[in-house]
Amino acid sequence: MRQQVFFEDLGIKSYKPTWDYQEALLLKNTQIKSIHRTQNLPADQSQTEHRFILVEHPPVFTLGKSGKPEHILVSEQQLENLGIEFYHINRGGDITYHGLQQVVGYPILDLDKFKTDLGWYLRSLEEVIIQVLAEYGIHGERSAGETGVWISPDDPFMARKICAMGIKCSRWITMHGFALNVNTDLSHFEYIVPCGIQGKAVTSLEKELGKKVDYEEVKQKIKFHFEKVFDCELLP
Description:
BirA Bifunctional Protein, domain 2; 3-stranded mixed sheet; 5 helices; 12 strands; globular
């Protein structure tokens, strides 16, 4: 049976309230699973609720739990002057940037009802973005040993990242997710070592296509391919 996933588009929303919202959804689901487990019921039959959130953040840098602070190349005062927030957060991965005209996706899924395999989950998220890019004639690829979606990852002179990913999983409940650059201001990436990876560029749909892209259209394509890849139904 296809899983039903509640969909939310939060529009433009600051990072911290969105992070708090994700934490609350994760906590609710993990509490449900704890109660369920005490009753010795099958994990895939709990009353947890899947959710898929899309949001657009004002400029912010986020550093993963194993990230290196030195990958931020500017001081706190410079960040303040630039109007860029900063948070050290609890996802995997290093440092990344969120900004306007970047689609950020946060799936809060109970993988007990999909597949309890984080490798499968990350590859599935990547596949959603790869299929979206294909609709624009862009060949998105995976880069060996690195999460996210890339263009020409095996060419040291041409490799560029178009979608960053970083997740957290607790009792097989996921949070955090992906960030796809659409018409994003890429100059802000110059203030960090993106994802802690030296020497590889960052790109966007706008840069690759040489024109502005319909942001709302990209979100609709993400929803469509998310349903296909995860074999689920998004509910309004």
